Structure formats: C-alpha cells, structure tokens
Amino acid sequence: MQIEPQAFDRVLSSMCTEPHPAARDAAERFLATNPGDPGTYPGVSELEEDAIALLSEIAGLQEPAGYITSGGTEANIQAVRIARERADSRNPNVVMPESGHFSFQKAADLLGVDLRIVPTDDDYRADLEAVRAAVDEDTAAVIGVAGTTEYGRVDPIPELGEIARSVDATMHVDAAWGGFVLPFTDYEWNFDHAAVDTMAIDPHKMGQAAVPAGGLLVRDSALLDELAVDTPYLESTSQATLTGTRSGAGVASAVAAMEELWPTGYRRQYVRSQNNAEWLADALEKRGYEVADPTLPLVAADVPRSTFDALRAKGWRISRTATDELRVVCMPHVTREMLASFIGDLDRLEVRASVPITSDD
C-alpha cells in the first residue's frame, strides 16, 4: 500500500486529533475483540463499563449508563430513536436549533420524525422563545448543543430542559466535541446541571482516543430498553446498540485515554487550546478580520473566499461555516507554532494581494 495516513501538521479544522500514545496502544491490542458479543468477549465488555463510568464522571451522571458508539452521529441517531420510541404521538417531532449537527437530519430521515429547526440568537445559541414556539404535544425530543461545530457555542441547556419537560419530551445534549473541555468552564451543560435525558460525548475528539470512539449516555438505564432487540444466537440475550459487531479498539482506546488524562491532563489541554484560540482570534482581528468571540477553542472569522482558497492551496486543511467564514478548531495537535505559520502564510498572501499590477505601457 503506497498511500500514507494524513499528517496533522497542517490540519486546522478537523474535530479529530492524534490519539494519546496509550490510547493508540490500547486500540491495537483490542482491535479484534467485539463488545457487541459480551458473552464471548467479557474482557472488552468490562472495559466498556469502565468507559461509561469515566464518561459519566466527566458528564455529571451519577448512575452510569450507556455504551461506546462509533461517534456522535450514531449517538444522536440513537437518542432520537429513544425519544421516538417513548413518545405517544403517531407523528413525533424533534426540535433543535439551526446550529445542530447534520446527523439529526440523518436521524429524522431514518426514523421518520419531523425535524423542526429553529433559529439561533445573536450569539449563535438556541433562541429559547423560538424553541418554546416550536414545541407541542407531538414533540418527542428537544436538542441542545454543548459546543457547536461552527462557533463553539453552548446552548442554554437548563432552560431547554425545562421546555422539554413542559411537553413531556426528552432532552438530548450533543456534547460530542465540547464534552471534554466544558468540565473546566463555568457553563451549565451536563446531567448534574439540568434535566438532561441523553447525551452524545466523543472520546475520539477532544478526549484523544483513537477513531472510532463515541459515547451515548442516558440518565436512566431503562431508556436503553427502548433500543433493545433480541440476539438469540449470541451468548448475550439482547442488544441496545445500533451496530452489531463493533471493534473493541474504540472501547479500550477510550478507557486508556481517560485514565491517562482525566482530569488533570484534560484541564491542561483545555487551557492550552483555549489560549491558542484566543491568540489566533487576536491575530486575525489585528489584521482587520471580523472574528466571533472564541468562547471555546474554536475560531470563526470572515476571511475572504479567495484568501481561503489560497491558504488551502498552500496545504492548510481548513473549512468554512455555513455562512462562509473561516473555521479553525484548536484541537490537541494544534500548536502555537502551527498557528504562527498559518498567520505567516496569511500575511504573505495579503502582501501579494496588495501589490499593484504594473504595465510596461
């Protein structure tokens, strides 16, 4: 095989990162195990319990319950599935802000629920009045985002939980990216802060586990019964996961990363990433770009498309928001040196663009 994996030295917009060395080693050792068949692979099944216990500690869940998913998309689909199954309505709907992840569109299509998308406020957070206006007796779930993918914003989770309760809907928090940085902030986002029923939280993002390693947490283990199907030919009798066979690599990797880094290592990494985001935001503002305040380690700025394309041509792996702003995620692999090199390339492009074109005439 000639192709080599992507290097991270110029990756600035991905929400995945280089796994911690311990996580990489654990993934390799448990690669061939299958937590989908816990009767045959009891060791990795025990590790999954450890993973859920650690995730629950991070997310303020007193009685650990859930499972390790392939990522935030699976966790979000499963959360919508739980909500649909427990709803009384024949035409259930799910209400989420426009900042919600596109995986909820997949969930709506797969599960046949109506996805009601409401606007965000001036700070890119869920507009509470719009949510209140959208929910009704057919609402099965209200979605809140704790660390949005475009601006790194945290929705008002306690208030969204109250709205969900008012119509007997479940409250789901998508903390796939934000869950490993929010414990070191003053935000109210988790099971201990609000009436949260389900949560997506991904060790393979800021948690520094190997891909794939997501997480679905539930406040009450009975909610997993809404997902359970019989598994007559396996040693275990039922299964609540969306996939059947799963590699134990993600489970083992998640445990290894969290045991190494929670909480001190993650706290250090959050401080470093946040400082990098604020440094980059300041550098862009000094160059005249409009920048969204980086409340978490994510920077969005109104860099023109022509400049963006030129930076991509120089090898920078960057992306844009839905409103066409440059988007940089300060993941663990993103260093100050990388950001300084990025700004250096930006400066050189600006100088080149400012040089007038001359003619021999």
UniProtKB/TrEMBL annotation:
Catalytic activity: L-aspartate + H(+) = beta-alanine + CO2
Keyword check for Kinase: no
Source organism, top-level taxon: Archaea
Pathway, per record: Cofactor biosynthesis; coenzyme A biosynthesis
Record SUPFAM superfamilies: PLP-dependent transferases
CC cofactor: pyridoxal 5'-phosphate
Keyword tags: Decarboxylase, Lyase, Pyridoxal phosphate
Enzyme Commission code: 4.1.1.11
Modified residues (N6-(pyridoxal phosphate)lysine): 205
Any one GO biological process: carboxylic acid metabolic process
Entry GO MF terms: aspartate 1-decarboxylase activity; pyridoxal phosphate binding
Assigned protein family: Belongs to the group II decarboxylase family. Sphingosine-1-phosphate lyase subfamily. Belongs to the group II decarboxylase family. MfnA subfamily.
Protein function: Catalyzes the decarboxylation of L-aspartate to produce beta-alanine.
Protein name: Probable L-aspartate decarboxylase
Source species: Natrinema pellirubrum (strain DSM 15624 / CIP 106293 / JCM 10476 / NCIMB 786 / 157)
Record gene name: mfnA
